[in-house]
Amino acid sequence: MDPKLDAIMTNGHEPDPAGAEDFLSATERDQMLKVSKGDQPLVEPERRSSHKVSKTCRVKEELNEVVFWKFRMWMILIFISVLIVAVILISLALCSLVYKDKDEQFDASTFNVSRLFNGTFRMQSPALSEGVAVAASNQSQALTSRLQDQLEDLYKSSPALGRYFSSAEVAPLRKDPAVAEFRLKFLMPAGQRGQLRKFTLSREMIYNVLRQFLYEQPSLRIEPASLELA
Fold it and tell me: How many C-alpha atoms does 157 have within 13 Å on its Cβ side?
């Protein structure tokens, strides 16, 4: 029997050779796309890595390039960085030397107005009850000298009161062996005495500075609550 006739009798129509070719070509295209997609992840990283390597090599070549005489580019970059840091440090040093705080500029010779404070505080040391109250004794003199040095160091080192402080005196322990009497002297310019009396050299300022010091120095064995100042 004729093949065409057999196909017509089986399928009801004659096969189309062009359709078969279209079907095969579509299948082949799908296979080609699958192959190309499967190969892409393997090819793309290789391209990226080679691109990075080329960039790195280019940077190295540029850094090793001779710019002037025997000086290479990386040498010049390091030199410029060090130079910038050196310039900044020198500028800061010069500014610190040239800059002067206006508050630190004063003429001590104009401080001719006195301001005095008298005060007392009680000692806690048990040694004072054993005859230290004798004015001529070496122990009493040593204690008096120590207290005087402590008062002078305290007010001289004060940022607000140091420039005005003149002297501190501690009287010999005569009356009560547990009580020490002292005197503080400050000097201030005549033109500012009104303002200084109200604020910087006020009784409250002098008192609070000394009382805080006594709380921070328990080794002196002085009762901060016993401090009196007038």
Answer: 9
